Amino acid sequence: MRVPVLAMLQIVIMLLAPAAALAQQTPVADPELFEMKHFRKLCGQVDFGPDFATKTDFNNDGIPDMIVNEGEINCDGHAQFYCDDEGCPYNFYVQGKEGGYILIATARLYRYDMVKRFGNMVFEMEMPPRYCDRQPDEERCLTTIRVRGTRFVTLFSK
User: Fold this and answer.
1) Which of 46, 88, 91 lies closest to 68, judged by CA?
2) Residue pLDDT tens, the chain, 158 long
3) Torsions phi, psi of 43, nearest 5?
4) How many alpha carbons lie under 13 Å from residue 107 in its C-beta half-sphere?
5) How far is the C-alpha of 40 from the C-alpha of 35, rounded, in Å?
6) Which pTM does this prediction carry?
7) Are 67 and 54 in contact (CB under 8 A)?
8) Neighbouring C-alpha atoms within 13 Å toward the C-beta of 127
């Protein structure tokens, strides 16, 4: 009799797990302070560069969002501690109308620029070659992305 109960419990857990994974995030009041606190726990001595956090409206809703560049972290005397051959991690937070920010994407980039295309701000991101199905020794990928709400939409890559 215990085997069916255990099997039933496993089925219920498997059915609920995807719903838990898709549950809405708890908004963060200030992503810059949230991430600084995180890195202060990881590093003995940490310094944040001037471009660590950038407020900008990247999803074109009129509300400032935030980009955190982990390449601006000096951890225990090591500049760009979290960067590697594929660039540095960037975290993209969207601010909601009711306040608070949610993390919508993390990407490893060499750099990004924001440009206006057809009346909207878009990202031009320089990324590792593999994101354009290239070999590691080939040209880096330049991808143009628009953020709609909380989704990154790739317009084109070259």
Assistant:
1) 91
2) 444 443 343 444 444 444 444 445 788 999 999 999 999 999 989 999 999 999 999 999 999 999 999 999 999 999 888 899 899 999 999 999 888 999 999 999 999 999 998 888 999 999 888 888 888 788 888 999 999 989 989 888 88
3) -110, 145
4) 19
5) 9
6) 0.81
7) yes
8) 22
